[in-house]
Amino acid sequence: MKKIINIQYTTITRSLFIYEDMIENFAPDDLIKKIDQNISDKLSYNTNVKNQMTDFKQFSNDIEIHQILKRFTNLFELHLNFGRLALQDCWGTKSCEFVETLRHDHGLGVSGIIYLTEGGPGTFFPQFNLNIDEKIGKIIFFNSLALHEVKRTKITNPRYLMSFNFKEVKNWEIQNES
C-alpha cells in the first residue's frame, strides 16, 4: 500500500540589513599587493565575479584582516541578534578594464566588503534599491541572503576589494576557551 504524506510549510523570514562604516587609519597597499600576488587562474572569471580573484579562503587567516574585522564583530552579536560569528571565507578581487559581478547571495550568515580603491561603480543591492559608493577604507556588512551585484562597467583605474563571509558558530562548536 502506498502512502501520500502531505507536507505543509511556511516561509521563514529573516530581516535583511546593510551596515556601512569607515575603517580608521586604513592603508590598503599591503592588501592590494597580496591580491596581486595570489590571483587564482582557476577562479578568475569563473564565478559570479567576472574579474580576477584570489581563492575564497586566501585571506581567511590573514592577521591584518582579522584585526580589521574584530573591531566590528560585536555589532552583530549585540545589536543584530546573531550569535557568535567566525570568519569562514575571505578573498580579494581585482578589476582592470571592466568590472562585473553577477547578481547573487551568499546563503546564511553575514557577508561584507572592504573597498581598497575608489571610483568604481559601487555595489548594488536590489532588495534595498541601494548602490553603495566605493571609497578607500569603506566597509560594509550585510545579511548574506541579500542579493547584490555590480553591473558591467568600463573603468579607468584598477578596482580592488576584499569580500568575506562569517558563519554563525553554534554553542557545541565553540572550543573550551578557558
Total discrete domains: 1
What proportion of the residues form beta strands (DSSP E)? 25-35%
CATH class: Mainly Beta
Shape: globular
Can you tell me about this structure?
The protein has a single domain (22-170), classed as Jelly Rolls. By secondary structure, it is α+β, with helices and mostly antiparallel strands. The strands form 3 sheets. It has a 6-stranded antiparallel sheet with strand order 1-8-5-10-3-2. Strands 4-9 form a two-stranded antiparallel sheet. Strands 6-7 form a two-stranded antiparallel sheet. The mean pLDDT is 88. Helix content is 13%, strand content 34%. The protein has helices at 29-37, 63-70, 73-79, and strands at 18-22, 52-53, 85-95, 98-104, 110-115, 123-125, 130-132, 138-143, 148-154, 159-168. Strand 6 (123-125) and strand 7 (130-132) form a beta hairpin.
Q: How would you summarize this macromolecular structure in one to three sentences?
A:
It contains three helices and ten strands, in the order βαβααββββββββ.
Blueprint (SSEs and pairs):
Elements: E1 18-22, H1 29-37, E2 52-53, H2 63-70, H3 73-79, E3 85-95, E4 98-104, E5 110-115, E6 123-125, E7 130-132, E8 138-143, E9 148-154, E10 159-168
Antiparallel strand pairs: 1-8, 2-3, 3-10, 4-9, 5-8, 5-10, 6-7
